[in-house]
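Checklist before submission:
- one chain only
- standard amino acids only
- sequence pasted in full

Submission:
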Amino acid sequence: MGGTGFIGGHLCEYFFAEGEISKGIFRKGSHLRIMDQCGVQCLEADLMDRSTLHEPLDMVDVVYNLASPPPGRQQDEYNEFNQVGLKNLLEEAKEHGVKTFVHLSTLEVYGFGQRGAIDEGTPVSPTNHYQQAKLESERIVGDFAKASAPDMKVRVVRAARAIGSRDGTLAAPILKMTEGGKVVLPPGSSNKVSFSHPKDIAQALFRSASSNGGEAEKYLVKSFDASLEEVTAALIPASGKQAVIKRSGVFSGKTRISAYTVEQLKAGLTLSDNVEQTWKKINYVPVYGPEKVAADIAEWYRREPWTTEDPA
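Returned file contents:
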């Protein structure tokens, strides 16, 4: 679910590289280019209409759920998705005998008021509708498996802020500003933030499906820690262009980076290195650092400067 999105597209590519055969659900009007290239069986469906899920879930052992309204939507949209869409998916998965349900969540369930590095013992404290909805979706998935589908294995991956090729909310704005010779960064750009490349998220999702952890096991994952200034400093030369880095202000101008992303940067959520011990349970080893991410983004932008749907 969510195979046409930013992270979902990378998951399809990861499956293709691993030799996995998969189905992908898309909504009407979605880009199918990546799924087609990866040999994914593309099936149109609507999570709000359970009848459309029959065929996509037929003979499926593992469901990877990346579907979610993106940040910035109205609370009613998140509520509708959780109360109708997600529950439709879970009910249909149970009816079709799905063995494993892997759900993508976010480190942001810990809230933007969090201070210090996050680990498994950090209390969750969502501070906006999006974060509350993501935490609620985790609860719905876990409670459903426990009460209604005890034979279904549930895994939740809480990933750090995604950045990589086809990222329309952070990478693309920086590259667009680079073309003009000046990258204007917002306040908070010097804060350390945990980032995840979508391929590393895909790896964690894929490997968690075969893990033998406890009930509704949660995995906190990242690729690296860096400030946006450091990422930008790596991305500019990788793009083959020249640009100066400025801080947003009266004389330097406004940044192209969205308001919600600015909030993420100001919060400076970082994942403690202590969680690396739990990665061994799923054999997760992040591949991407700032330089490799910069090279990945620059190559994409030179080759095909288009974006998929908003990240999940």
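Reviewer check: Residues 182 and 244 are 5 Å apart (CA to CA).
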